[in-house]
Design a protein that fits this description.
427 residues, alpha/beta, eight-stranded mixed sheet, 45% helix, globular, disordered N terminus, ABC transporter substrate-binding protein, signal, Bact_solute-bd_prot1, SBP
Length: 427
Amino acid sequence: MRARLSFPLTALAAAVLGASPVLADDPVELTMYYPIAVGGSLTDVIDELVDDFQAEHPEISVEAIYAGNYDDTRVRAMSAIEAGDAPQLSVLFSIDLYELLEQDAIVAFDDLLESDEEREWLDSFYPGLMENGQVDGQTYGIPFQRSTIVLYWNKDAFEAAGLDPETPPETWDDMAEMAAAVREASGGDQWGVMVPSTGYPYWMFQAFAFQNGHRLMSDDGTEVYFDDPAAVEALEYWVSLSQEHEAMPDGTIEWGTLRQNFIEQSTAMMWHTTGNLTAVRNEADFEFGVAMLPMKTQRGSPTGGGNFYIFNDTTEEEQRAAMTFIRWMTDPERAAAWSIETGYMGVSPDAYETELLRDYVETFAPAAVARDQLEHGTAELSTYQGGRVRRALDNAVQAALTGQMSAEEALNQAQAEAETALRRYAR
């Protein structure tokens, strides 16, 4: 389970396409910003992919620029647009859609299609991954580094606590009881569970709320429902993992260091993105498992991660070149290799039908968990004024976890702040 599994992407690309390079005197130049929010050397993987693409498409030159996390990348892309130096395309948060539309920054892929074959490509992705990329029947974002939240558990720690190492928690009650059992069996040396509450706390909270049968936002991005009793109950449960069950640390838990906490066996369970799967596999020196998140009234996780976008301030030639690159990057064979290298999902059913990913899933079943969880998925929290709305919810989650407010008080305040931000969009 810990073997490094690396694929020579250049050789893979040549085998997949079998095309000879076409010489070009003046390549179309594209700039692409992209984020990384997980462990591993993903910049190296992106660089290899871009090199492979350019070897096959010398008529197109791609400068891929790592721009930080998702928020950093959005800020950098929008700043470049405002400065008149817009990139042609970027990988940005799938939930940035409303903000990008409001600023008239992006192009609908539907307007760029020129053939039935291109339409088939646009229709080839998992519908659950397209929800955050579509508005009013138009597609603006193409899935790339996409995820769901999954549960990682340390089988050795489970066994040491007298738990079945092959059986993860199915329900909230199970998780609380198992986490407390691990904590007790370790003599207080190991936490039972950690759920990150920095970075993207709204994302984790959305999962809890959805598992309690509650959606946090309207389909049109104009309303949120943070103060619903089901949402309050969800946050109260999260708080109870530390305050009642004493199975999780008090206060906030860092997104960026949680994977290392799990690797170092500071915690027996963690909730984290499937995008960390390959890094965990490469680094863990113990047996671990990956499962769908536990449920209250239903299973569920919001989708997450980044989509490709093409910007408005581009020439028709650049848009066609960007389409060529995005189609190449989301080709089933390439999506399969990307999934194996990272842990992110193969973004289309066809990716999982490739021999490459089919064989990988057969030998490493955790690679299919995020895909299977799509059946129980929901679109990630996305609204107009998304930054302000998510910040209000993030603050509420952290206030409850640190004991500054009750869950109800914190969510009432977040609801009021979100309604103020969304007032001009009410319909």
